[in-house]
Amino acid sequence: MQQDILINWAPHETRVAVVENGALQEVHLERSLERGLVGNIYLGKVVRVLPGMQSAFIDIGLDRSAFLHVADLMSSVHAKHADPDASAPAVVPIEKQVFEGQSMLVQVIKDPLGSKGARLSAQISIAGRLLVFLPQDDHIGVSQKIPLEQRQILRERLSALAHQSNAKGGFILRTNGEEASDQELIEDITYLRKTWERVKTAASNQAARSLLHQDLNLLQRVLRDFVTEGTQTIRIDSGEQFGMLMAFGKEFMPSAVDKLIHYKGERPIFDLFNIDEDMRMALGRRVELKSGGYLIIDQTEAMTTVDVNTGGFVGAKSFDETIFKTNLEAAGVIARQMRLRNLGGMIVIDFIDMQRTDHQNAVLSEFSKQLSKDRVKTSVSNFSPLGLVEMTRKRTRESLAHLLCEPCASCQGRGIVNTARSVAYNILREILREARQFNPQEFRVLACPAVIDLLQEEENHHLAGLSEFIRKPISLMPEAGMGPEDFNIVLL
Hints:
This protein has helices at 74-80, 148-164, 182-205, 218-226, 239-252, 254-257, 275-281, 319-341, 357-371, 400-404, 420-437, 449-456, 460-470; strands at residues 3-10, 13-20, 23-31, 41-50, 55-59, 66-69, 103-110, 119-121, 126-127, 131-134, 140-142, 170-173, 210-213, 231-236, 260-262, 286-288, 294-299, 303-309, 345-350, 378-383, 389-393, 443-447, 474-478, 487-491. Helix content is 33%, strand content 26%. The protein starts with a strand and ends with a strand. It folds into four domains: 3-35 and 217-276, eRF1 domain 2 (Nucleotidyltransferase, domain 5); 124-208, Ribosomal Protein S5, domain 2 (2-Layer Sandwich), CATH 3.30.230; 283-401; 420-491, Hypothetical Protein Ychn, Chain: A (3-Layer(aba) Sandwich), CATH 3.40.1260.20. It is an alpha+beta fold.
């Protein structure tokens, strides 16, 4: 796998595209006015405790109060391990741990989504280049993506280095720290301890609702989180930001420095791999398959559904083979679309019905293989009795559609609007309703030109009949700025 990372920078927005073997796999956006909050540490103030939900709302200075569940309190975590032989963990109720008006150190673990506030944790963790620091715990762990046989050796080595450096707290070794030298790990330990000391100093000097620590920006996270052994180049089109990344890379990720390139081409950097067009297509419902089939992807508040269709694909030897090959191709495309669109939560996939069990197993195997490339945690079930595959993908940030789009002003996100004739009939009914309650000299209808034209022409006899029935004149006035479903009836 060959990976290229393209960075398009502007003062108002940073866009990062991850391309593998020439195909766009991921898009990450960060806007200066809408920067994500995950990883930020705040000194919050408890504004409400809800014993029934075992949660609390914390004011951290945002528009909406953030949410803290009892499971994300340190004392609850400790209680779970207090009696390993007990049949159920002894969790201390939240009302016995926090109280209204209390100031407490909290960290954002989920950005605000839709109408929901940010999700918080009192279990602070600070990510470095190679390690994650747990200042309130003494746990030494290793990323589960590292092979099992190596984890115990790495855990013992990390434990010895932490003890050697007199570092209080726990550490988790990140995947890219698997082959790090002792010196590199010690440097990361030192950096993380200094960061934590700055957080503690700020917490003692600042008032509640204050931001104490902000996670790295998107440019810096590219070097920390996105670069892999397969990364060939990291191209950025800003000279100033290129210099900043070089300095950051030399200090924290020297192995990535040689891959950094300042792109000076005349063409926009995203044109190199047709990124903008791929992003535009990722906002649509329909995704074409090379075989002639297609996907229909619908994203709702509760879940995302994916429907696989054969379309015009008839090239296989038999109908069963046609279905199998379409589903096999769809498995890879769906996994890529989930990463590209950053779909999260519950996802239901309706593959084309397959009669043969070996075909179902092959499609699931291919789907799982493609999902293994995802840096976000996923969980997939087998085919249900109805032939559906249910899965979850961890929701870590807003989807691409939510970042770039908003509900249509005309249809309010339904995807459809009433026909001009339906709106015209709504107007006729509303005039009759108003005539029974009021006695104006005249009714004047304001609506979009298409509806007014219909009332003046095809529906003119119905309009005239209503006017005669209510014994009042009805005048029409087109308003170009009104939506297809909008109208207003003025009583004169």
